[in-house]
Amino acid sequence: MSAQLPFDPDAIEPEDRGERRTTLEMGHEEAVEHVREAFTDAGFGIATEFSASDMLNEKIDAGRSPYYVLGACNPPVADKALVASENRIGGLFPCNVVIWEEEPGVQVVYHVSIMKIARLVGMAPDDGAWEAIVETTGEYVEKAWNNL
Q: Could you state, in order of their start, the residue ranges of all structural domains in the chain?
């Protein structure tokens, strides 16, 4: 028997979770560098990064196509988010941007807003202070997306 969610996930629109997706026509390593630069130029630092495909292929012979995770962070916003969420948002840090190879020469870039998700699942307040954090991070992501 599976636990029933207290809400209908199908009722949550992609915008409600800050979902973004685009396609880049370039090689995987070039796309990773391009996304890294786009987010850095938009005001994010890259706090962590790793190749999920390399790890899984090495550990369990998964046979995965290239899949890379960039953990982006804007420290002033992250600090405000920790305070406003009573430290809970840290469970979702950093703001991940993933790049996976759809096919050779075609890379998908994907991101969801941890700030919006935290509010949806009750990890952050639904108040004006949190809305300001959501808006600020959204502006940074919009700038990064425009850089892509």
A: 28-147
